[in-house]
């Protein structure tokens, strides 16, 4: 278990900075000690990282997100409504400075800056693969939010009340990340897992690029929602793996997951995936099944592009992961502009293949011939 360091120890050599000194209107970089996942030891450790996009350190406001506290919300699936019990308010980040490094004074400050940094990393990664700067503005992060989930039968779902992190768009003006209460004595909390935060950030990007542009079709029932839900989950894992380099990034936080999320697994597309996507309602459909296929397929493309043996355990380098992530991001933008009245997964793969160079396309087609065989004839570039 991580224990907070004594403030008395730091007072021997640190000076306390007034809240006024934290406040600014331009982005500034700060070296701050925070909690981070160490993949070598598979544990949470103290680490000094550089936070690049804060405009107000004391309130944890910046280009990546604004951290708020004190939120209480009810998600009522029976009545199909959202009820706000308490709206969020500004937080206070308390830190001591020794040399050029800020050391959080309390647990909340330590946890909140760690969350901000994880979301910032996700944003900067997307900008590195083609997302315009400030494309996603005013995203808020609700720290230690109380989220009460009520199912279709009117029963409170206890399992959703803690150790969870998710993105939720309530309406076009209220979109953000929800960090539920967590402890760090068992495993890696979801909100401390950089892959999980990147996964959730990808949902915000998917919303911006694709779902918002297809709202009319969705409302009219002209777009097959389930294929989009599956693609949304799959691309969220694609970008999480690309940033972390860990094909099984979620394992440190959830070891007994029902549907495999390990992108290194060999997953072939089955006819039942189409049957479920086209026949089940959104509450019965499991988007992680198609999502896992998408993630594993793109990961195998990265590996083949890198020259690694088929289905081996080698991990592609960052440059290769960024190359495929760039193609995936461009495909998301193209799909948003596509405006199809009926979307199927092949639409995404046709877009993706068109983003690859002529030298990459035959390799990607070979992966799809092996794993997407039942729809391979529909892939335009491959024929």
Give the total of beta strands: 14
SSE order, one letter for each helix or strand: HEEEEEEEEEEHEEEEHHHHHHHH
> Helix content range of the residues, please?
25-40%
Model regions low in confidence, pLDDT < 50 over at least 5 residues: 1-23, 216-223
Q: What is the beta-strand fraction?
A: 15-25%
Specify the number of helices: 10
Report the average pLDDT across residues. 86
What is the topology, as strand order, of the major beta sheet?
1-9-10-2-3-4
Rounded to the nearest angstrom, the distance between the terminal CA atoms is 56 Å
The general outline is globular
Task: State the secondary-structure class.
Answer: alpha/beta
Task: Report the biggest beta sheet as strand number plus sense, adding barrel if it closes.
Answer: 6 strands, mixed
Give the C-alpha Rg. Answer: 22 Å
How are the SSEs ordered, and which strands pair?
Elements: H1 7-11, E1 15-16, E2 23-38, E3 43-56, E4 61-62, E5 66-69, E6 72-76, E7 81-86, E8 89-90, E9 95-98, E10 101-104, H2 107-128, E11 140-143, E12 146-150, E13 165-171, E14 174-179, H3 194-211, H4 215-219, H5 225-244, H6 271-279, H7 287-305, H8 318-338, H9 345-355, H10 361-371
Helix pairs in contact: 2-3, 3-5, 3-8, 5-7, 5-8, 7-8, 7-10, 8-9
């Amino acid at each position: 278990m991580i224990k907070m360091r004594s403030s008395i120890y730091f007072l021997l050599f640190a000076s306390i900075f007034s809240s006024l000194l934290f406040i600014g209107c331009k982005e500034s970089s700060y070296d701050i000690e925070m909690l981070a996942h160490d993949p070598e030891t598979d544990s949470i450790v103290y680490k000094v990282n550089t936070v690049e996009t804060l405009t107000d350190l004391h309130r944890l406001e910046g280009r990546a997100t604004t951290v708020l506290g004190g939120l209480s919300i009810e998600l009522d699936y029976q009545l199909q409504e959202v009820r706000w019990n308490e709206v969020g308010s500004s937080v206070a980040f308390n830190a001591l400075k020794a040399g050029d490094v800020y050391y959080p004074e309390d647990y909340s400050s330590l946890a909140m800056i760690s969350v901000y940094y994880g979301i910032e990393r996700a944003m900067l990664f997307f900008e590195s693969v083609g997302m315009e700067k400030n494309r996603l503005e005013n995203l808020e992060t609700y720290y230690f939010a109380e989220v009460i989930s009520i199912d279709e039968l009117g029963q409170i779902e206890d399992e959703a009340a803690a150790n969870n992190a998710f993105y939720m768009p309530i309406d076009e003006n209220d979109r953000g990340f929800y960090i539920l209460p967590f402890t760090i004595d068992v495993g890696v909390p979801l909100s401390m897992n950089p892959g999980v935060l990147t996964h959730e950030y990808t949902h915000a990007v998917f919303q911006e690029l694709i779902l918002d542009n297809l709202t009319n079709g969705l409302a009219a029932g002209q777009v097959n929602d389930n294929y989009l839900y599956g693609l949304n989950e799959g691309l969220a894992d694609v970008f999480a793996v690309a940033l972390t380099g860990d094909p099984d990034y979620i394992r440190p936080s959830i070891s007994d997951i029902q549907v495999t999320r390990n992108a290194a697994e060999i997953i072939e597309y089955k006819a039942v995936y189409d049957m479920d996507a086209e026949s089940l309602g959104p509450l019965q459909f499991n988007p992680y099944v198609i999502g896992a296929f998408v993630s594993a397929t793109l990961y195998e493309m990265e590996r083949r592009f890198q020259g690694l043996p088929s289905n081996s355990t080698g991990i592609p380098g960052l440059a290769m992961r960024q190359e495929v992530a760039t193609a995936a991001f461009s495909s998301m933008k193209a799909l948003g502009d596509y405006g199809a009245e009926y979307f199927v997964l092949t639409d995404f793969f046709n877009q993706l293949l068109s983003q690859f160079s002529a030298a990459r396309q035959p390799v990607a087609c070979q992966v799809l011939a092996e794993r997407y065989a039942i729809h391979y004839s529909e892939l335009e570039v491959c024929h």
